[in-house]
Amino acid sequence: MRTETKLIKTKLGLINLAEQLGNVSQACRMMGYSRDSFYRIKELYDTGGEIALKEVSRKKAIPKNRVEPHIEEAVVQMAIDQPAYGQVRAANELRRKGFFISPCGVRCVWQRHDLETFPKRLTALEAKMAQEGGFVLTEAQMIAMEKKKEKREASGEIETEHPGYLVAQDTYYVGNIKGVGRIYQQTVIDTYSKVGFVKLYDRKNALTAADMLNDKVMPFFEEQQIPVLRMLTDRGTEYCGKAEYHEYELYLTIEGIEHSKTKVKSPQSNGICERFHRTIQDEFYAIAFRKKLYTSIDSLQQDLDQWITEYNEQRTHTGKYCYGRTPWETFAASKQLAVEKMIDQKFESA
């Protein structure tokens, strides 16, 4: 617990104790406060509540000790031009340009302008891009923006713009069922609309991964006349290999689909599939295996197909772009985004 929070609780305790005892003097003796302090605390609490009980620093800023305005402006500009620089690197670079300021001074300026951290400097850069039309990023700024993108993907936040922009695929081990054997599930999720596709196999390899796309995923997107631009997978052997020998990589090449892979030792970067697997385990497999004894993959696939239809068309989703709609409703409502993107690309290439 922070010291400031403890002080507030102590002051509240003094006020409450005085009310319970009905005697201010006795409460002050027990808590170690003077009567003057009690009435001052009581007045602050009555007028401003708990926030008014915070300890106010007696230190006041001395404007004359701040750096000169042109140096402060250069420090702020450095944060925008080179957002990846820390305070030491920024101070060294500014010194080369004739602006003499210490690393601590750089940090103080950044704090005054809410730029003291790398994410805050990137936010300021994005705000400037939005304000100034036709703003062209430098190479250093582009590298910094890419770092932000990589960090988002590593933490599970995926960049997607419309249905078909990025489709995620993963393998889920269902289990070893008596009389059936090992069962693996190929999962594919459209990261924008959260529409899902599932198919069961008795093994996991590149051929089954490619078959999943060919049998269920590509026919759906072709029917909707929406292209699949990128596939996101982990680095499992069923997804990665040399295109000329690997069935999955060869299939993506033939279909003209770009292949993106998760970062090493970062399974959360394919978090949409991981979260879907937890949902399907809790809402389908855990219930289905209690109610029915399956003797083949086909019989399990039939029940699974029924569940995935309900998931896509009836179950509401709280995903980023779903806003409480079902995945299919989200897909149908956002198809126009993909169509507009295709039209823009045709004009650019013309």
Q: Which secondary structure elements does this structure contain, and how are they paired or packed?
A:
Layout: H1 3-21, H2 24-31, H3 35-48, H4 69-81, H5 87-96, H6 103-112, H7 118-131, H8 139-154, E1 167-177, E2 181-190, E3 196-201, H9 206-224, E4 230-233, H10 247-255, E5 258-261, H11 271-291, H12 297-313, H13 327-349
Parallel strand pairs: 1-4, 4-5
Antiparallel strand pairs: 1-2, 2-3
Helix pairs in contact: 1-2, 1-3, 5-6, 9-10
Structure in words:
The protein is of the alpha/beta class. The chain has 13 helices and five strands. Strands 3-2-1-4-5 form a five-stranded mixed sheet, sandwiched between helices. Strand 2 and strand 3 form a beta hairpin. Helix 9 (206-224) packs parallel to helix 10. The N and C termini lie far apart (63 Å). The mean pLDDT is 83.
Helix tally? Answer: 13
Task: Pick out the low-confidence regions.
Answer: none
Helix content: 55-70%
Order of H and E elements: HHHHHHHHEEEHEHEHHH
Main structural class? alpha/beta
Largest sheet: 5 strands, mixed
Q: End-to-end span in angstroms?
A: 63 Å
What gross morphology would you assign?
A: flat
Q: Strands of the biggest beta sheet: in what spatial order?
A: 3-2-1-4-5
Specify Rg, calculated over alpha carbons. Answer: 30 Å
The number of strands is 5
Task: Indicate the mean pLDDT.
Answer: 83
Beta fraction:
5-15%
Please supply descriptive tags for the structure shown above:
350 residues, alpha/beta, 5-stranded mixed sheet
